[in-house]
Amino acid sequence: MQGRLIILGLDGLSPDVLDRLLVAGELPGFARLRDQGCYRQLGTTNPPQSPVAWCTVVTGRNPGKHGIYDFIRRQPDSYLPDLSLTRQENGKPRCARETPAFWDYAAELGVPVTVVNCPVTFPPDAVNGRMLSGMGTPDLLGTEGTFAFYTTAPESVTADTGGEVHVVTEAHGRLDLNVYGPNRASLTGKTERLSVPLTVEVAPGRDGAAFAVGAEHFCLAPGQWSSWVEVTFGLGPFRAMHGITRFYLAELKPAVKLYMSPISMDPRKPWLPVSYPKTYARDRCEKIGVFSTRGMPYDTWGLNEGRLPEDAFLQQADSVLETSKRLLRDELAATGTGVLFVYFEYPDIIQHLYWRFVDPEHPAHEPGATARLAGMVDECYRRMDAVVGETLDAMRPTDTLLVLSDHGFTTFRRAMHVNALLRRAGLLVLRDSVAGGGGGPLFRDVDWTRTRAYALGFGGIYLNLEGREPQGIVKPGAEAEALLSALTEALGRLTDPATGGRVVHRVYRGADIFRGPNANRAPDLYLGLERGYGVSWQTALGATPSELLEDNARKWSGTHLIDPELVPGVLFCSRPVAGGSPTLYDIAPTVLRWMGMDDARLAKEDLDGAPLF
To answer: What is the pLDDT of residues 573-596, one digit of tens each?
Structure first.
C-alpha cells in the first residue's frame, strides 16, 4: 500500500451518455483519467438498484450474501412491505447489510479509512477512521424524507406521495401554523404528535413574508429559499430532538403556498448516530457549514408531486451537490493515507427527473422546455467531470483514483402493474367484497386463501408458499416448480398492446441470481424489463390496479430498474486494471488487495469477484 486509494462513487453514470460526451470533447477530466489509466464498462448487480449495487461494491458479495435485494423487502412474518435500508433490533436501528464491507478489515490491515455518504451505512460502523452515513439515514420523523406543504388554496390538495399537505387559514395577513415532528407516547399512553409553532406575517403588498419558528426569525420573498432553520421538539426536562429544515415560499397571491423540506436530524446534535466518531458530523459542520443528514437529501417528491417548481428543485439540488463537493475537498486535504470513499447521488437524481427532456417519445416530454432544463442530463455529467478533474489535481504521485458508477440509465415511458398481470392469470385473487376496479396498497384487498403468487418491490415475484408465507397455499417442490416455469414462460411472451414490443427482456429465477445464507428471503422470480419500462410504484407497495400497463406521465422519467445487461455502469482508474469485463463484484476485492490482504485471506472471505490490480 502506498499513498491513498481515492474512490469516487458517482451514482448512475451511463456509458451511453458518457461516451457521447467524451467523443464531443466535453469531459476533459474523464478523458484525462482514461488516458492516465483506463476506462471500462462495469457490469452491475441483478437487480441494478442502488442499495443492492453499492452493498455489492463495498462487500464484493451478491445479494444472497449481503441480504439487500431491493429498495423494498417483505416482512418475514407478514406480506407487508418494508424499506430494506435499515433494520430494528431491540428497538434500535442496525445496519441492514449482513456481510462485512472493505472498511471492516481496515483495523486488522492497519489502514485508515474515511467513508462519506456511502449507501446503507446507517447507523455508521465503528471504522478505523471516519464515517458519515448515507442512503438509509432517516429524517427526524423516521421516514426517508417526508415534506410538508402549507396552502390556503384547498383545490391544491391531492393524494401526495412523500409529503403532508396542510390546508391553512390566513387572518388579517397572519397565519398561525405548526411544524410537525415525530409521534411520541404521552404520560397517559396515548400517541401525540410533537409540534413547534410557525407564524407567518404577510407583508401588506404581498411581496414578502416574515417567519418565526421557535427562536428563529427570517424573511422570504416569493420564489426564495430560506437558509437552514433549526427546529427543536421538547421531550421533557433536559431532552429534545433537534432538527434542521428549509422553507421555500412558492407564492403569496392569490394564495399562500409554502413548502418545507423534510426535517433532517441536526448533524451537530443528532437524535440517532449519523457519523463515527459521533463528533465527526459536528466537526464537518464547523468546517463546511450545516448540511442535511438525510440519506436521500434531494427533494425529489416535492418536484414530482408539483409542490416545488423546477427552478426551486434545481436550487436545492445544487446546494446538496455543493455540500458533497465541500466534503470531498475537505477530506482530500485532510486525508494523508489509506482509503477515501466519497459518494455522489447527484447524477442519479438528475437523470431520474430530467430524462423526459432527453427522450422525445416520453409521455412527459416538453419540447418547448428551456435550454437549461433540456440540457440538465448532459450538464450533470459535466459537473461530475469537474469533480473528477478537481480530484486529479489534488492527487499525489503515490495516489490511486477509482471512479465508478453502480449502473447506467435509460428512459421510463411505461409502468407495469405486475400484480394486475398476476390477477388476470388467476394467481392473485382479491376479496369478493372488492367491487370492481383494483386492490389497494399493502395487499389490503388480497384473499390469501386463494392467491398463489404476488409481486412486491421493483421486480420481485413471490410464490405464496406453504410453510414460508403466513397463509401459504403453494406446496414446495413439484407444484412450486411448475408454477415458476409457467410464470417465466408467460412473462417472457408479454407484449405491450400500445407498441407491440416486448415488455420483459428476461425473467430470472431467484435461486440463480441470489446465492448465499440470506437467499431464502429473496424473491422467487425477478423481472429484467426491456428499455422504456419500469415496475410501477403501486406494485412496489403491494397494490393491484385494474390495468396492466400505463403511460408514465411523472417527472420521474428515467430509470435503471430494468434488465442489468441493458444498464452497465462505468469504471475509470488512474492505473491499468486486469481483465476486460470488470463488474461491481471486483471492487471490494481490489480495495482489499490494495490494503494489503493476501490471496490466501481473500480466498477465505468467500468473495464473488477478483482483484483488478
So the answer is: 999 999 789 999 999 999 999 999
What are the tens digits of pLDDT across the range 405-445?
999 999 999 999 999 999 999 999 999 888 778 999 999 99
pLDDT at residue 3 greater than cutoff 80: yes
d(CA 492, CA 47): 17
In the chain, domain spans? 4-66+100-137+321-409+566-604, 147-265, 413-558
d(CA 503, CA 528): 9
Provide the whole-model pTM.
0.96
Measured CA distances, 295 to 274, 322, 323 (Å) = 10, 16, 13
Q: What value, to the nearest 5°, has the Cα angle with vertex 196 and ends 191 and 198?
A: 135
CA distance readout (Å), 535 to 455, 483, 508, 542: 10, 21, 15, 12
pLDDT at 326 over 70: yes
Q: Which residue has the higher pLDDT, 189 or 461?
A: 461
Can you say whether residue 588 is alpha, beta or left, with left for phi > 0 and alpha for psi between -120 and 50 degrees? Answer: alpha
Report the distance separating Cα 596 and Cα 1, nearest Å: 6
| Residue 515 CB neighbour total at 10 angstroms | 16
Cα(37)–Cα(31) distance, integer angstroms: 10
b vs e for 429-448, b when ≥16 Cβ sit within 10 Å of the residue's Cβ? bbeeebeeebbbbebebbbb
In the block, which residue shows the cell 408479454? Answer: 494
Residue 1: which pLDDT band, with cuts at 50, 70 and 90? Answer: low
DSSP labels, 232-289: EEEEETTEEEEEEE-EEEEE-SSS-EEEEPPPEEPTTS-SS--EESTHHHHHHHHHH-
* DSSP line for 20-72: HHHHTT--HHHHHHHHHSEEEEEB--SS--HHHHHHHHHH---HHHH---SSE
SS3 of 262-276: the string is CCEECCCCCCCCCEE
CA distance 523 to 340: 34
Give 446-456 pLDDT, tens digit per residue: 999 999 999 99
Helix (H, G, I), strand (E, B) or coil at 333: helix
CATH of region 4-66+100-137+321-409+566-604: 3.40.720.10
513: closest CA among 96, 42, 64, 44?
64
The rounded Cα 217 to chain-centroid distance in angstroms is 33
pLDDT value of position 161: 80
C-alpha cell at 57: 461494491
* The pLDDT value given to residue 238: 84
